[in-house]
Amino acid sequence: MDRDTSTMSFGDHLEDLRKRLFYSLLGPIPILIVCLVFGGPILEFIVIPLETQLRASGQPVRLLATSPIESFGAYLKVAMAVAVLGSAPWILYQAWLFVAPGLYQNEKRFVYFLMPASAVLTATAMVFLYSVMLPVMLRFFIVFGSLMVQTNVATAPLPDDLTLPEIPVLSADPVSPEPGAMWLNGPLHELRFAIPDAAGALSILRIPLDAGGTIAQQYRIGEYVNLVFGLAIVFAIAFQLPIAMLLLGWTGILRPEDLRPWRKHALFVCVVASAIFTPADPGSMVLLAAPLYLLFEIGLVLMQFVTPARVAGAGSERRSDDDAG
User: Fold this and answer.
1) Rounded Cα–Cα distance for residues 255 and 244 (Å)
2) Do 121 and 292 touch, CB atoms closer than 8 A?
3) What are 194's strand-pairing partners?
4) Which residues are CB-neighbours of 53 under 8 A, at least 6 positions away?
5) What pLDDT is recorded for position 219?
6) Confidence at residue 128, expressed as pLDDT on a 0 to 100 scale
7) Contact partners, residue 197, CB within 8 Å, separation at least 6
8) Has residue 314 got a pLDDT over 90?
9) Which residues are CB-contacts of 131 (< 8 A; sequence separation ≥ 6)?
10) What average pLDDT does the segment 263-270 reach?
């Protein structure tokens, strides 16, 4: 027999479970410490898509904190979320060490296939969310909000004796500006001033500028972090669709020939799911529905070619003999 748990008592199983849970809880602690040290760069990386789309729409690049603890809370939330995600392989490894002694060798092959496949799908979901989904979704909402209500500004010829002052437009801040200097930073859409402080050192003060619109596009850092991690959970779960279909196929609940005639219905379900689990703008709905349906087709291919016999190998043929012995 391949199993090695025949001599373990119920108390031994409980002790092993307690040990694995303890190790699982210890795993995220070192990663959490590192994330707390580098929480600033991590948060800056998460905010990049929003900053890029705000700047592309001519809006001021500035996030709000409407309470004294909101920025610190967002910092902690990012550090804890990254620590949990980073320690997920360790936690899954501890779970595997707990259940592996009770599995036959051919049963272990299923886990060796499913765990890497699930990890690849999860990583693909995160890359797709960050690189494709967030930019399109944020672009839609920022442009929609800024153009929804426009302010009509009257224009008139200048008086003959009046000349408007000119402010230099620079692509970057000057290296050593003179005290009192003023310039417009074009890429950042900011009016900037060099002001000496009480100690005589220069401080660069800024006034964000926007491209118009009555509704100011200013977002809270806490709400943005919640949006990103909420979408991350949805995408991580949604991208497990091929794994779920494969498991249903292995258990005999579904077969590929049963699902193929329902492709149109599957597409409809993907569209409905994308409308429920996204902010429901047209871009994000399409961007989630399309990969969901593609994953459905991938699941059909896996159900057809990745059969239990191929995964289990020759060991599946000997299982009945092992059980009898």
Assistant:
1) 13
2) no
3) 204
4) 135, 138, 139, 142
5) 87
6) 92
7) 203
8) no
9) none
10) 88
